[in-house]
Design goal:
It contains 21 helices and 19 strands. It is an alpha+beta fold and 508 residues long. β16 and β17 form a beta hairpin.
Amino acid sequence: MVKNLLLPALLFLIACNAEREFPEITADFCSQIPVWTPPTLTRQLDSLSSQLQTHTGVQVLEEGDEAMISRAWLCAAAERTIDIQYFIFSSDNVGLIASEYLLEAANRGVQVRVIVDDIMVEADADELLALDAHPNLAIRIYNPTANTGKNLPKKLLSMAKGFRDFNQRMHNKTFIVDGRVVITGGRNIADEYFDYDHEYNFRDRDVLLLGKAVGTVQQSFEEFWGSPLSVGVSELLDTAEVKLNTAVKYEYLRQYACNPDNFWPDVRRRIESMPETFRNAMQTGALRWVDSVTFVSDAPGKNDGSEGLGGGGQSTQQLVELIRGAKQSIYIQSPYLIGTATTQQLFAEAVSRGVKIHVLTNSLASTDNLEAFSGYQRERDALLATGASIYEYRPDAAVRRKLMTGSLQKRINFAPVFGLHAKTMVIDDAVAVIGTFNLDPRSANLNTECLAIVHDERISREVRTAIEEDMKPENAWQTTTAFNPDGEAGWWKRVKTWTRRLVPESIL
């Protein structure tokens, strides 16, 4: 969960490397696991060669469990390359097992490249350097102004030298395998994005793409990889002060992932059944071939900075054009909703054209970001005045029982807080946008973002139906000028949110 991320004065504290205690490895767990050799990605895609050239296969990943298992399957099936970029790559259970999958792919000869934004890097120097030392695995840190290789004085100096530069982050999330398949959308790599956290999980959405549109995603990754803003960890960390024992680190990851207490056998079996699941998706139409899918990404750095904390980017402009082109309806999910004057004008103009706008965001009771919610509180009445219908997510949303279908839910009956993290828009039941963009100034002007824009009526209707279900009374409150659900949050959370009103909206 990301808390207080948008308060610059605290960024350097939040991003400090965490001290972690891992369970001691006391047995050779890996010797107890049967060897699984999955069919290669080429073999699984062979029958689709003609479609891959002219169309894009699209499958929306609503459930966290299927999104996690799909990534694991693709790692295991990779033959040539795995290129990934994330805002957050945690060192929790999901993050450690994901690291082991990447390491195993590198051991097979797959070239693995990872870009992670600097602000939330949790791994210690020796862990980063050990992974980067593998001949087939390279890690670069995006905009390393806040965390990696910096002590507290250096972090303060970095923030003082360039306020905008310090706040400019990479929010892109892409997972590309062999240049042929990609998963993109709202999810970072951490337990709570895949329904494996016991206290707080996100309602999120990804989309799997294969074929024609993947080339554009790969080009975007190459642009970020080659950018001066992406710096190798060996350039940032003092290797002379780190005693590297890569064999020990690699074996720890291997044994951790083999331990059935960490990586349950039933999850492993679901991953091993993914080739059949993939074939079924193609046969049943769950994976749909689409003529037009556009991937839009901001350039590294977002914009030239000449407008200070403003300036927009390619993703911002694309969303503005989609809203201006809407004729009938707009459905939006955004965990953070800060109604700037531009947003208010866009909504008001659309409503005046007869467009029905429905927006779902977090309530105070469900949000993980008090700064952003404080910004929303300030503009809530103005957003309602545009004529848009606004809904706020319940922390006890009943739909979580439907969406959280993974092994954790089957083992124990628990009810974690459920927060919205999906960043989605549906225009006129004809265009579905699944990406990383929050409706806030930070996404509009500071963070680099990416969007998958799917021009397909069936997929658009399916995503709109999912959003409408999230808006039902058992899942969300409808906010009006006479009612908001702020009182459903505890008094202390309400007080803390009020104190965040000092934070300027331009950095929220």
